Amino acid sequence: MISLHGTVVVGEFSRQFSLEVGNEIVGVFGANGIGKTSLLRTIAGLNPLGDGELVLDNEIVDAPAKQLFVEPELRHVGMMFQDHSLFPFMTALDNAAFPMIMRGVKRDAARKLASEMMEQFGVAHVAEQLAPTLSGGQSQRVAIVRALVGAPQAVLLDEPLSAIDEESREGVRNLIREHLGRLGVSAIVVSHDRADLDHLCTRIENYTR
Questions:
Q1: What's the rounded Cα separation, in Å, for the pair 8 and 144?
Q2: Cβ neighbours of residue 119 under 8 Å, at least 6 residues apart?
């Protein structure tokens, strides 16, 4: 469960959000500049709330008035960034396994789980390549795996299909939905493509300026 009622502030951007997400896949749709990415970054703990309260799985993780802020690595949130944000000095496999290792999973076990999911997403063959050598589509698939693997308590996906070619798009979309359904957690998907959201999500929140 994700419950956010407060002000998202990133740099000069500020916007009030009121969002409740149960065990479902919620799409966030709207024009550039309305704060879609900022919303995800705040839920993940990369930016603190300006005011209000954020609850994840019945635990308050951000409440400025109470001087309460739970660090990102303790929130067990899987996030895929719009620019993928893979570590350039790591292989694709180590990038995919990294969040699990940060949450205390042993490296070999984390790499095994990540490897199995990379196989499903069609990128097992690039497992030992450094991140900068990957194509845009390969990088995006690895970033998706990193967000989904290791039983996160919530999943945040920012433009998860932007670098996937049209021929592969439906298959990747189905894989994402299948894995999210299996996890049974709160998930938020941000996309400028309404068709992707219609296929992926159980409901859509449409934000305007």
A1: 24
A2: none
